[in-house]
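User: Run a structure prediction on this.
Assistant: Running it now.
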Amino acid sequence: MKLPYRLILLATATLGLPMLHAQEVPEFSEDAVDTAFDGIPEYITREDETRRPGEVPAMFRDDAMLDESHSNQELGINVYTAPSISKIFAQLDNLPAIPEEYVLRRRPENLPMDAGKLALEMGYLLADGFIAVRSGHMNDIKPIALDLSRYGKAIGVGEKMNTYSASLLEHAEKGQLEEFKRILSSTQEAVNEELTALRDPDLAHLLALGGWVRALEASAVAIEQRFDAGQAAIIFYPDAPAYFNEILSGLHPRTAKRLRVANMSGHLEQLASRMTLAPGETPTPDKVRAIRESAAAISTIAVGEGYEH
C-alpha cells in the first residue's frame, strides 16, 4: 500500500510558491498502518521499534541509502549515512506560510573555531536558504550563499561549496525552486562525501541535525498560525529526535562538551516524548506549541538566539 502524499512531508511552509513534487517512501503492510485519525497512519506518531540504533528514520532516507551497489558501499552510503537534507526539507511542503519574523534569523558574524559547531551552523544555513526561497526572499539568498562558501572553506570543503553556492544563487534569483532544492540536496551529498573522505562522518550528521531543527521550528510556527490537525500530524515524528540523540551519544567526549550535548540531548528526549501520540490521539495547538518550544531551546543551544522579532 502506498502512503498518502501528505505523509511524505515533514514540516515548514510556502509563501505563494509552487509546491514541490511528492517523494515516495517505503511501502508498509496493511497490518502496520492503523488509522489514528483523518487517514493519518498511526505508525508515524510513534517510534519505529524495528529501527536499529543509528539507522536513519524511514522518512529521511533517499534512494541511494537503499541502493546496495558496489559504488555506494565504497562511499559508505547506506541506512546509517546522514539523513537526506532534501527529505528533511520536504517538511516545508503543503503547510501554511512561515510568519515573516521566522523566515530570516541573525547569523553569527564570526565563524566558530570548532568543526562540530561549524557543521551544525552549516545545516542551519542550508535550511535558511531553502526557507528564504520558499518565502520569496530572493534578495536574501546572496548573503546566505556567501556564508555557505565561508563555512565550506572553514570545514574543508571550500572548492565544492563555491561551485554549489553560485548555482544556488543563480536558481534563487530565477525563482527556480525545484532546481534550487536539487542543488541544495547535491550540496549536502558533496559535503558528505568530502567529510567521509576526511574520516569525519560525525560532521555530516551534525549538519543534518542543524537543518532538521531549523526546519522543524519554522514548521511548528507555521502550523501554530493556522492550525489544522491533519497538517500538524506530520511533525509528530518521534523517530527523528530519537535518531539524532543516538548520533549525539556517539560523539567524542571533547566534541560533546563543546557542543553542550548533554543539554541538547535532554531537549531531544523531551521532543520525542512530545511528538508521540497515543492511539487515537490527535495533535492540538498546545502540543504543536510544545514542539516549537523544544526546537527553539535546541536552536538556542546550537547556534544562539537568532530571530528578528
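Strands lie at 35-37, 40-41.
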